[in-house]
Amino acid sequence: MGRRRKGLKIDGVVLLDKPVGLSSNAALQKVRRALNAHKAGHTGTLDPLASGLLPLCFGDATKFSADLLHAEKEYETTIRFGVKTTTGDAEGEVVSEREPTFDYKTFSEVLENFRGEIEQVPPMYSALKKDGVPLYKLARKGEEIERKPRKVVISTLDVLDFNPPEATLVVRCSKGTYIRVLGEDIGEALGCGAHLKSLRRTAVGDLRNSESVTLADFEAMSEEERLKVLLLPDRLLSTLVRIDLDEAQTERFSHGGKVFVDESGPEEKVRVYGIRPDGERFLMGVGRLESNQELIPERLCAFAAE
């Protein structure tokens, strides 16, 4: 029996436009196989019924995937009012139907209550766990447990289209926001119930779906074309302050040593670039910049010590 190939050492990011019906992990594995990449990961799951931006990380980029878990997300969603389902989306069974009677003025007034910091009760159909068991598995058995409300922030809630009994919204929100719950809560506030008809993620942090590639297009590319699609790992860190080190600092930092720089923090996460003997700048990793101008390594790229 021959040894299994481990794949190639590939470092970079693919911004994938995930299709509806595919899990985030299944999408990742398809792109990973197409690249023949050894190490891969994604930056947080996107529901199978949702489409849109799914940043996929390969090699050293996986070291920074967690940074996007805390980033704001942006979605376009179409809400169907008057019909409530078990799952809060179009996949669930209908549990109630009420005729929507609101006008645009009432709709706009209700939306105002969902902007800013709000509380949400996580849905039973979610990956949250109770005693190690995902809630969605309990929900499928007809079980329901108490869930504590969580605070989330809705920074953008704009109307793209209003065509009762449906409306399409743009939502930009904090980590942990459930758009299905948002749609259901808006429906309850309007007195008719609601569920999500569709959901599409359009941004993660400052990454936009307009920069993405579809799975079909990616799989149809040549090997050379696929590699050109890869973005550099530091694309995940573009919102962080940049610190450039000199040669002596580069040497010390690459071995995990702290250095002193001209900038100061307070305890601010930064992206750190070293310099090679030929003058080329390269990403070393992420550090923490203290108020005393001390820069402490947190996560280094594998090639930082080369």
TrEMBL record:
Catalysed reaction equations from the record: uridine(55) in tRNA = pseudouridine(55) in tRNA
Domain of life: Bacteria
GO biological process entries: mRNA pseudouridine synthesis; tRNA pseudouridine synthesis
InterPro entries in the record: PsdUridine_synth_cat_dom_sf, PsdUridine_synth_N, PUA_sf, tRNA_psdUridine_synth_TruB, tRNA_sdUridine_synth_fam1_C, TruB_C
CDD domains, per the entry: PseudoU_synth_EcTruB, PUA_TruB_bacterial
Keyword field: Isomerase, tRNA processing
Claim: tRNA processing is one of the keywords in the record: yes
Molecular functions (GO terms): RNA binding; tRNA pseudouridine(55) synthase activity
Keyword Cell membrane appears in the UniProt entry: no
Span of domain tRNA pseudouridylate synthase B C-terminal: 180-233
Domain Pseudouridine synthase II N-terminal: residue ranges: 32-179
Residue ranges of the TM segments: none
SUPFAM superfamilies noted in UniProt: Pseudouridine synthase (SSF55120)
EC class: isomerase
Residue intervals of the tRNA pseudouridine synthase II TruB subfamily 1 C-terminal domain: 243-300
Active site location: 47
Entry EC no(s): 5.4.99.25
Chain's role: Responsible for synthesis of pseudouridine from uracil-55 in the psi GC loop of transfer RNAs.
Family indicated by similarity: Belongs to the pseudouridine synthase TruB family. Type 1 subfamily.
HAMAP family with a match to the protein in the record: TruB_bact (MF_01080)
Record NCBIfam families: TruB
Name of protein: tRNA pseudouridine synthase B
Native source species: Parasutterella muris
